[in-house]
Each structure stands twice: as structure tokens, then as C-alpha cells.
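[scheduler] slot 2 assigned
[scheduler] job type: sequence-to-structure, two independent chains
[scheduler] chain ordering preserved from manifest
[runner] begin chain α
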Amino acid sequence: MPQETSFEDLIAEGATAPVEGWAFDWLAGRATEERPPWGYARLVAARMAGVDAALDIDTGGGEVLAEVPHPPPLLVATEAWPPNVPVARKHLAPLGASVVAVTGDAPLPFRDAAFDLVVSRHPVRTDWPEVARVLRPGGTFLSQQIGPGTVRELSEAILGPLPPPAHRHPEHAVAAARAAGLTVVDLREATLRTVFHDIGAVVWFLRKVIWTVPGFTVAAHRPALRRLHDRIRAEGPFVAHARRFLIEARA
């Protein structure tokens, strides 16, 4: 971004740009995040090529699922955030996939043992008993999940010091999977450098990734945003660290 762009202009850009779907193209040139080493999209594509029926939970705008080159005969996705549903349907129509609008806490609207493969990238929460219920015997659940304290540095820059993270620990996911009757066959973790080059990128990110600062609005958090803007101008890009884990389990 040009150095002369004002705080108010950057805030306005980040506050008005669309956040539908689950792509982050708007951040090009303004923020970067390292990718996990395991290549989630590649793993999903490989698993999809060998099954008859698959489900993608919390598909977002369908951006990751749309990359699958050889979809199974039956491919279904769910999405709980209403603005994402038409975006996902548009992205996934070429694959012949159905997108089902759901509510976040409701059981999955599918019969028992309906799928050979269930996948989920960055689910809001994982209902392990429901995943186990819809998997066929021998079926696989593959998920890339948000780890504990992800981009905590950014959360604290806006909110101040926070207590240690209590949720999203990989070991909790493993225990929940086993309690649901699944066998965990793979678990990997990664810490990823995340860099914000201007406050507009921060605002857009906080509007999209709503759990980073719950209840975020520009009006409510303007003083903290101003301090972070001044810090970026004085010290350079703001660096945080995203945390991810990959978990694979079998029925």
C-alpha cells in the first residue's frame, strides 16, 4: 500500500470490502500467511478420487472443494452461514455437488453410514458423534482445524492480554474422536507466520475471521486499531502466528 494512504481510508477499505465466501484473495499484497506443510487440498483430492460418496462439512464458499479434479459420484457439502450458501453452490455446480444449508448446532441431515469420506477445513466445531454416525464402516474423516491461540498476537493487539487458550487443542480433538468410536490414524501440527502490512487488511481479516476478536466492529475498537496502525507505520508489518492441525480418523 502507498505510504501516504490515511488511517481513515485504510479503515474504510477494510470495512466495506465483501467478506462472503472463504477465499482471501482481497488480502493479496496486504497480508500473507504460510501454508501448512501437509497440503490439505491435495490430500482431499487424493481421498476423493477413491470413494463413492463424500461430505464436506462447513464448506465456506466451496473454494477448497472446488479444486477436486475427480469428484466422487455423490458429493455433498454443508454450510451454516447463509451468505456463503449461494457462493458455494456457484463454485461447486461444475462438480455436480449439492450444497445443504444447515444450522450450526443441528445434527447432520443425512442417514447413518451415508459416506465413505467426510472432510472439513476449519470447522466452527466438530460434532464427533455425528461424523461417526454418517461414516460407513472403514470410512475416513479428514480435517484441517484451527489450533489453540491462533493469531493470538492480533487478538491481544486489539483486546489486550488474554488468558491461555482453553479450546481447540489437538489432544482434545483426539480424545473426542476416540470417544465417538473413531480411530485416529494421523495428527500433525503447524505454526504459520502471518503478516499484516496495513490496518485495512487487519479490519477485513477481523470481519471475516470473526472468532479472532468476538463482536469486532470498527466503531467499538477504533482506539486499538489506531494504535496498531501507528505501530505498523513506525515498526513495519505486524506479525502473528496462525496455528493449525490436521487430524485423520477412521470408522
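[runner] end chain α
[runner] begin chain β
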Amino acid sequence: MSEEEPTPGSVRPGGRTARTRAAVLAATFDELGEGGYGELTMEKIAQRSGVHLATVYRRWGSVERIICELMIDKSADIALPDTGSLRADLLGLASGIGVFYAAPRNRRVMEAVVAAAVRQPYAAEMLRDFFRDRRREAAVLVRRAIERGEVPADTDTDAVIAALGAPFYYRLLISRGPIDQDLAETTAAAAYEAARAGVFRHPAADAGER
């Protein structure tokens, strides 16, 4: 194993710190693919990555912190489309989510983070923040649609994205069914039609009418 112990702030991005991170995340991804969260240990990650165990502990402290970081890293692969149409944008996003979770190892990453969230407050907070941040990022699709006049001006952008994503996580974590293109298409269509019909009105708008 290589001993990698850079002083915080002393290493340029792309240097040893970045290589250590990449090696550890890749090793964790591979270990999850082979054995799942229940068999994942810091020792296995260190051995597979070639990074000294002390370095892995010092930087991350626990398996749960590594898998949370891995989830954030991997989820960046899901692109936010900009087609000029909310219907097409929602379908593009849903298709991206579907392709991502159709890969067994990506499913295992999410399953591992959810399992960790049950046991550790850090992982629970991380999971909550992850979904909040992803919804906020994706909400730009709905804001563009509001500007184009496709949906009511008081549409709750966060609620639209939550409605788009929820069926995937129900299928992934509860019903344990397949994540496929059919799910992506029906979910996107439902979210689009509901948004167009004004189902996702912002709570402030309803309060103002009382």
C-alpha cells in the first residue's frame, strides 16, 4: 500500500489528494458491487484502493462517510436537459435517472446510503441534503417552463421535481421492481400533466386566496 498523508490545503487539486479520493471511491464502488453494504469494511476499501488504512480513516472516518461521498460523485452523471420544452426536459431527466439506477452497482450505492441513514445521523442528514440539493438543481427545468408560460406562474418547482423522482425511489427501495424506460415515460408524463393542470401550486398561493 502507498502511504498518502498530505497536509490539508497543501496539495493542488488533481494531485495526491485527488488521486487518493478517486482510488478510494472506485474501490468502494467495486466492493459494493461484489458484496454489498453489509460486507463493506474500511480494511477492504484500503486493500483494494492501495491507500493506507490510516489515511482512509483519517480522511473519512467511516464506511458511511465514504459511501455518502460516492453517491454524490456518481449522481453527477445524471444530466439536466435543456430542450426548450418541459415535457421533453422531464422525460430526459427521468430517462437519465432510469439509466443510472438500471445499473446494479448504482442501485447498491443508493441502497447502502439509505441503510446507513437508518444507523447514523450523519448519513441521514447527508441523504436529506442530497435530495434537497438535487431537487433545487433540477428545479431550473420548471423555472424555464414558467418563463415560457408552459405551467402556471405559481407552480412549486420543488414539488414537480419531487413528484418526478418519487416513483423511482419507491420502485428502487420499496417494491424492488425494475427501473426501466416505461417507468421513466409514465413518471415524466404524469409530472408534466399535473404541472400543466396546476396541481403543484406553491403553498403561498393557496394561502393568499383564503
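[runner] end chain β
[qc] chain β: Residues 172 and 179 are 7 Å apart (CA to CA).
[scheduler] slot 2 released
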